[in-house]
Write a structure and sequence with these properties.
Radius of gyration: 32 Å
Order of helices and strands: HEEEEEEEEEHHEEE
Largest sheet: 6 strands, antiparallel, barrel
Structural class: alpha+beta
Distance between the termini: 53 Å
């Protein structure tokens, strides 16, 4: 009787162990379906945004330019949409003051229409398409013009005086020169970085 009881207990133990093994292996690795903070995603801009016309809270969309893989599993294929929002903007102004544009990435839209809230930022800051020689040429041009005016006047040291006046005029023109606006062009590719974890449940795929 005791032997039969022991056999039953052993069988039950083996069956439970086997069932647990099957259950564990049937469940996918949940870590695969999580985008961790610090994950970088390469995207492409759908439509241009520009500090000249943009306003705070304007929205825009980007699409993945490269698939995002985790443990050799494609979690986000090319074409997945990420929506962004303008959080700060300043237009270019005179005095050479360039515009600024700050954005954040807030929504991930999966192919099946399911959305996930995210927190993403640009990996690299936006850069002004500057032309440093423009200001230099403005000053040099003013100096040259002043020198000619001084020489024509026939006054002693007129060229030097004219050069000084011209330089001042050139500097004035430089001050009145308007700065450049910053923008992200349509089809421009860049990287964003997630600042918090995002869970992507298996049933969403």
């Amino acid at each position: 009787m005791n032997l039969r009881f022991m056999k039953t207990e052993i069988f039950a133990f083996i069956f439970t162990l086997f069932a647990s093994f099957i259950s564990v292996n049937a469940q996918p690795d949940s870590n695969i379906y999580q985008l961790r903070a610090g994950t970088t995603i390469r995207v492409q801009m759908d439509n241009e945004i520009n500090s000249r016309v943009a306003s705070v809270n304007d929205t825009f969309t980007t699409t993945l330019a490269a698939p995002l893989l985790v443990q050799e599993t494609v979690l986000l294929p090319i074409g997945t949409t990420i929506e962004g929002r303008v959080t700060k903007v300043r237009r270019a102004s005179y005095g050479g003051r360039s515009g600024t544009l700050e954005v954040s990435f807030q929504t991930l839209r999966l192919a099946n229409g399911v959305k996930r809230d995210i927190e993403g930022v640009l990996v690299n800051e936006l850069k002004i398409e500057s032309s440093p020689t423009a200001d230099v040429l403005t000053v040099i041009g003013g100096t040259a013009l002043g020198g000619i005016v001084g020489a024509v006047s026939g006054i002693e040291n007129g060229a030097l005086i004219g050069a000084g006046v011209g330089a001042g005029a050139g500097t004035g023109f430089a001050f009145l020169k308007k700065g450049k606006d910053v923008k992200i062009k349509a089809d421009e590719k860049f990287e964003i970085k997630l600042t918090r974890n995002v869970n992507l449940p298996v049933q969403d795929f």
